[in-house]
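Example record

One chain of 389 residues, shown exactly as stored in the release files.
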Amino acid sequence: MKKFLAIVLALVMALSLVACGNDGNSDDTPGTDTIKIGWYGPMSGSAASVGLSGETAVKLAVKLQNEKGGLLGKQIELVEYDDEGKYENSVKCATRLVEQDGVCAVIGSHLSSSVLATSDVTEAAKIIQIGTGTSNIWTNIGLKYTFRPTVCSSLFNKDCYASMVTMGATKIASLSAETEYAQGATEAVEALINADPNMEVVAHEGYTSGDTDFSGQITKMMAANPDGVLLNGGGEDLGKIVKALRMQGYEGYIYGIESLADQQTLELAGEYADGVVFSCCYFVPQNIEDAANDFEKDFLTKYMAEYNELPVSEVAYRAWDGAHILFKAIEAAGSTDGDAVRAAILSTPFEGIAGKFDFSDESGDGIVSGTTFYIDGGKIVTLEKFLNK
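Predicted structure tokens for this chain:
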């Protein structure tokens, strides 16, 4: 009877963790002499391609750091879980990473709703979380152990609106996904438009991530005769939407932020991508030689050598910088203790692909910089360069 109960209990525990998508990298063996770092994010589902860009970047960072001797004389052990892009699964994964796997730090999802949802778990345990989402919902709210290794999208929203002004837009139609990220970005830009006496939102439409038919929304938007279209969502959808807009006759500018920089957007939109204007921190170039700085070129060279391709999304940049911010802080602290690592992040300068980071204000944000780009003849150039050519 005892044996039967033990088997049933084991099955229940296993089923309760299915949503975390354990890929087999976890090692719960007592006494393992490694430094455990966790990663969670979408490795399946509608956001998988972008999530995998972050995951592969972290794996590469850990591999190369281990080849240099690891951290504090120990090898790094990466424990990874697939949350399928669902924040409720993210909480389960983060809980397992902290309570069962015993990680000393977590590199979190590029989905800000997941970072916010899991912050209760990591903050309570005084575990550093490097969240790669860009929404402003989880910084500047008093979190002590949660940091962002890229620029907050609130800056990009302001730059997006500014680009509309620059291009002379007066009537904007918007189409955004149902996600917190997309909805928040659209609301922020629309608020700026509504406060401008020379501009107005003439249509506001939505879609569900993974949709393939946008004709109904586009028909309604076109009926409002916009001279600008604002898109927010995942790169896996936006390329299809850009193409659909052009094929249904829209010839004006298309505006957005970082998701429009995804290689998926360019590949799916193809020849229809010209006239897209987006604001972001960085984007993955088509060739390593086009890297914006030495940090980006170094990363892309290493990524290409490891995977024989460039990352699909700039989320890889966020994860790469995030991993190295964490590595440097652990080395500077000489410890994996949460308070010690936090103090090191706040006081240790770091320079990466995004630029020079400074977390000393304790907001969780460490960098403020962005650029607006334009797609011209299939190539991404700065908007300034396009306007001055």
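Notes: Confidence is low (pLDDT under 50) at residues 1-19, 22-31.
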